[in-house]
Design a protein that fits this description.
Number of helices: 7
Largest sheet: 4 strands, mixed
Order of helices and strands: HHHHHEEHHEE
Number of strands: 4
Strand content: 5-15%
Number of domains: 1
C-alpha cells in the first residue's frame, strides 16, 4: 500500500506536467507568415516599400499581454493560441538587417538569373555556377554571398531573441525561412529541394 501512494502521486504529477507543457509550443505558422512578409519586403523595389507601422507604446504592449495572459493560462489549443501570437519582427536590429538585404538584392538578382547562386533548403544562399560570370562578377560573388548569409544568420538569431525562442529552435526557423526564400523565387532561379536536390523553379 505504501508503495502505491508514491507511484500514484508520480503518475498524477506526470499527467499535470504533460497538461501544462501542451501549451508550450513553437509558433511555426506565425514565423512562416513573418518570413513571407520579410522576403517580400527584401525583394521588392525600394519605391514600393511600405512605411513601417508605428511602434506600440509600452502601455499598449502591457494592455495586450495582460488581456492575452488569462487565455494562455487556461489552455487554448495550439492552433487557437498560435493565432493569437503577436510575433515581434520589428526591432531596430531586424529592421536594419532587412534594409541591408534589400539594398543588396539588386546586385544578387542578376546572379540568380544567371544560375550563379541559388536558395538552399536551410534558408541560406549558395554558389552554384560562376562560369557564365564576368571577372568582376566573379570577384563580387563570394563577397555578396558571405554578406547575405551573415545577414540572414543574424536575422534568424534576432527573431529568436526578440521572441524568447530557445536556441534549439534555430533549425526550424531556418527551415521556415527557406520555404519563403524558395517559394518567392522567380521562375528559372535555382532552389534546393528538401531532399537536397537542386532544380530550377
Amino acid at each position: 500500500m505504501s508503495l502505491r501512494i508514491p507511484w500514484l502521486v508520480g503518475m498524477l504529477l506526470l499527467v499535470f506536467v504533460s497538461c501544462v507543457t501542451v501549451n508550450i509550443y513553437f509558433p511555426a505558422a506565425a514565423i512562416q507568415k513573418a518570413a513571407d512578409q520579410i522576403v517580400e519586403d527584401v525583394r521588392k523595389a525600394p519605391e514600393q516599400e511600405p512605411q513601417p507601422a508605428p511602434e506600440p507604446t509600452p502601455e499598449q504592449k502591457q494592455d495586450t499581454s495582460s488581456r492575452l495572459a488569462p487565455f494562455w493560462s487556461i489552455g487554448l489549443g495550439p492552433s487557437e493560441a498560435e493565432a493569437a501570437v503577436d510575433l515581434n519582427v520589428s526591432t531596430p536590429a531586424i529592421r536594419g538587417l532587412k534594409a541591408s538585404m534589400a539594398s543588396r538584392f539588386p546586385q544578387l538578382q542578376p546572379l540568380y538569373s544567371k544560375g550563379a547562386i541559388g536558395e538552399t533548403s536551410n534558408g541560406y544562399l549558395a554558389m552554384r555556377d560562376a562560369s557564365t560570370l564576368s571577372l568582376k562578377e566573379r570577384a563580387d560573388l563570394n563577397r555578396l554571398v558571405e554578406q547575405e548569409n551573415a545577414d540572414r544568420r543574424a536575422l534568424y538569431a534576432e527573431i529568436m531573441k526578440a521572441n524568447n525562442l530557445a536556441a534549439n529552435t534555430l533549425p526550424e526557423v531556418e527551415r521556415l525561412f527557406a520555404n519563403s526564400w524558395r517559394d518567392k523565387s522567380s521562375p528559372g532561379w535555382w532552389i534546393q529541394k528538401d531532399s537536397g536536390e537542386w532544380a530550377k523553379k
